[in-house]
Amino acid sequence: MDPVARATVLDFHRHRIGVFGAGSVESLGWRDAASQQRRFSVIADACDFDGTSVLDIGCGLGDLRAFLDARAHDFSYLGLEHVPAFVAEARVRYAAHPRTAFVQCDFSAVALPAADHVVASGALAYRCPDPGFHLTMIRRMFAAARRTVVFNLLDATAFPEHPLLVGRDRREVLELCRSLSPHVELIDGYLEDDFTICVRRVPAEAAPGDRYPTENPR
Asked: For residues 188 and 185, what is the distance between their CA atoms, to the nearest angstrom?
């Protein structure tokens, strides 16, 4: 992400922090807690996190860490986040949690550490002068993932015009993901303007469940 885009994102979150408070889901840019948790539920259903390592790209306040606590066991968690106030709050919240760390950085400009599962929830939704930024990040996330990359994106066919956030073309994203691995799953239907893609290095031992309708455009 270029310096101007990065500064714009920081200003957006500083404004939201001023309005809603540093510890709120609204400060992260989510519509509400329910929409954030809905996305997390899809991610948790898509992967077996037990006994694995998790890299959370654009982790915000580390809310995914708390969500996975109720769904998985014996996992390690590393969150990367570029908003200093979010990292400071996350470190306080999870100070007593073992195998949990937060790093303040521009995740698009650093080498991504290897992890079993690489997750990005909301991190690829920002506008950027480079129209292929999200595709570059997906490639980099897959390179860092030993097992699975799972991420969500706003859907270009449903998400309205916005000065900071942007919907993505799911067909374009699927084409890229299928060039990385034949084991690609598209999950949608959980929110009207969002979709999740899970890219596995090997086939899943079992389907993540039938909680959401799925679509696989050709």
From this structure: 10
